[in-house]
Amino acid sequence: MYKAKVNVTLRPSILDPKGKAAHHALQNLGLNDVQQVRIGKFIELDVNADSKEAATKVVESACAQLLANEVMEDYEISFED
Amino acid sequence: MATFGVIVFPGSNCDHDAYHAMKNIMNSKVKFLWHKDTDLSGINFLIVPGGFSYGDYLRSGAIARFSPIMQEVVKFAEKGGPVLGICNGFQILLEAGLIPGAMMHNQDLRFVCKNVSIRCETTDSLFTNTLTKGQVFDIPVSHGEGNYHINESGLKSLQDQDQILFRYSDADGNLTEESNFNGSIDHIAGITNDGRNVLGMMPHPERAMEKLLGSDDGKIIFDSILNSLSVA
After folding, report:
1. Given B102, B107, B108, which is nearest A71 (Cβ)?
2. Which CATH class is domain B3-102+110-231?
């Protein structure tokens, strides 16, 4: 069993209104050192596979088909050791 | 006489409005199609209605796109069958890849529910062929994620191929910044695919069918559709 972690983030070129709103709230809290906020999604998947390579393929397919919308989002896959 | 099919997902909430509009206002034959149905025989026109299919989990339309009926909708559309996706229906068609682009949260993060003016940009479609270019009409919007996005080359291709059917404008047809309340790229309110048989639009024509309820401007789109189906 492999535990995959997927981070889905809006592409850098895309304005992130939720991140902007959170940034604004942080400024209201006085945390003025925060320069930018981008909000994404974190997804964990438990994958049955014989190798990490095979698990990666499964997760990549999941990301490309469903978990991320590649028109506006990027994704990054990592595994818990 | 053409038969319309209105798809019902768990979480659809404009399915009955669409059904009522077609049956009682447009006097057409109409059938509900459950998301687990796979039989579209006898259906001439599909409506993918608004709502919050599957609770908008993950992204609006992302889960609905994989429901059994959507596989048939894609086949229907690829064979040239006419499909109208309204609001969440538009989002589902985008996720299904029938129309290019994606929806983001409205730029001010607010859910907006109000009547807006939209301008007809082309009459070269089965959805707009009885309208006039530049015609402005008022129908409601009701969405939190209607901020249409597409990359630069995609936008250029939409413009070059005359695929933008509706833009948000003011009541006089001017594309003011204020009229583009959700931040959509190029004021886009509705676009068609390159085959021109699929329309996705955020405003709700099916909610503007009776003067008694505020506006019947939505009827002009269904008049155009019925006109196209009768000559086809």
Report:
1. B102
2. alpha beta
Order the strands of the A2-10 sheet from edge to edge.
A41-47, A2-10, A73-80
Other Cβ atoms less than 10 A from the Cβ of B79: the count is 9
Question: How close is the nearest chain B Cα to the Cα of A12, in Å?
Answer: 13
Task: Take residue B31 and report the two structure tokens written for it.
Answer: 């059938």
Contact yes or no for A14 and B149 at CB 8 A: yes
Question: Domain map of chain B by residue range?
Answer: 3-102+110-231
Quote the CA–CA distance of B10 and A72 in Å, as a whole number. 26
What ipTM, to 2 d.p.? 0.80
Q: Are B38 and B64 in contact (CB under 8 A)?
A: no
How many whole angstroms separate alpha carbon B171 and alpha carbon B163?
22
Does the distance separating the beta carbons of B104 and A72 come in below 8 Å?
yes
Is the predicted pLDDT of residue B213 greater than 90, yes or no?
A: no
Which residues have C-beta within 8 Å of that of residue B106, sequence separation ≥ 6? A17, B112, B143, B144, B145, B146, B147, B181, B182, B183
Whether this model's pTM surpasses 0.90: yes
Pairing mode, strands A2-10 and A73-80:
antiparallel
Contact check, Cβ <8 Å, B59/A15: no
Residues of B with CB under 8 A from a CB of A: 58-59, 62, 66, 95, 100-102, 104-109, 147, 149-151
Q: Average model confidence (pLDDT) for chain B?
A: 96
Q: What size, in residues, is chain B? A: 232
Which residue is listed with tokens 């807006």? B116
Domains belonging to chain A, first-starting first, are 2-80 (3.30.1280.10)
Q: What is the pLDDT of residue B182?
A: 97
Quick one: pLDDT at residue A17?
Answer: 86
Is residue B232 pLDDT above 80, yes or no? Answer: no
* Spatial distance between the Cα atoms of B29 and B74, rounded to a whole number of angstroms: 22
What is the tens place of the pLDDT at every residue in B81-140? 999 999 999 999 999 999 999 999 999 889 999 999 999 999 999 999 999 999 999 999
